[in-house]
Amino acid sequence: MARSIKVLAALAVAGASIFCAASQASADPNPNNTGYNPIWIPLTTSHYVGVYTAPDAGSGKWNNLTLAPHTSKVYADCWVAGGNVGSDGDVWYHTTYVQQSGWLTYTGDTWTFAPYVDSATQFHNVPGLPRCP
């Protein structure tokens, strides 16, 4: 009896491990697409978008910069899974330039929250933006 319980426990752990690995892999809509592919992405949601120094809303904003919806764009070259923002997800675009009110600003190594930029459309598109290496 004890042996069969141990076997069942081992199978349950193995099954959970396989499920977790499969779940992580399926989160990336295009797992073989990594690297850099810079594109301009217009802000298409109603959210104001902060430009952060790391892919997490708890990190500081770059120059306290917040972009207005529908009038701004970000120049993004890849995405990462970073900090969650509420229940909206954890996908962040690596952003090097922003355009707002006709002004182009170099932001260097910064991050914008994909669901607030374009509902993470460029993350979901295939091939879309690649995962950052």
General description of the model:
The chain is α+β, with helices and mostly antiparallel strands and 133 residues long. The chain is built from three helices and six strands. The protein has helices spanning 2-27, 114-118, 121-124; strands spanning 39-42, 49-52, 61-67, 72-81, 91-100, 103-113. The protein has a four-stranded antiparallel beta sheet. A two-stranded antiparallel ribbon has the order 2-3. The protein is globular, with a radius of gyration of 19 Å. The protein starts with a helix and ends in a 9-residue tail after the last helix.
Report helical residue fraction: 25-40%
List the secondary-structure elements in sequence, H or E: HEEEEEEHH
- Span from first to last CA? 49 Å
Total beta-strand segments: 6
Low-confidence segments, given as residue ranges, are 4-26
Estimate the mean pLDDT confidence.
84
Strand content: 25-35%
- Shape descriptor reads globular
Taking strands numbered 1, 2, ... along the chain, how are they ordered across the largest sheet? 1-4-5-6
Instruction: Supply the number of helical segments.
Output: 3
Gyration radius from CA atoms, angstroms: 19 Å
* Coarse structural class: alpha+beta
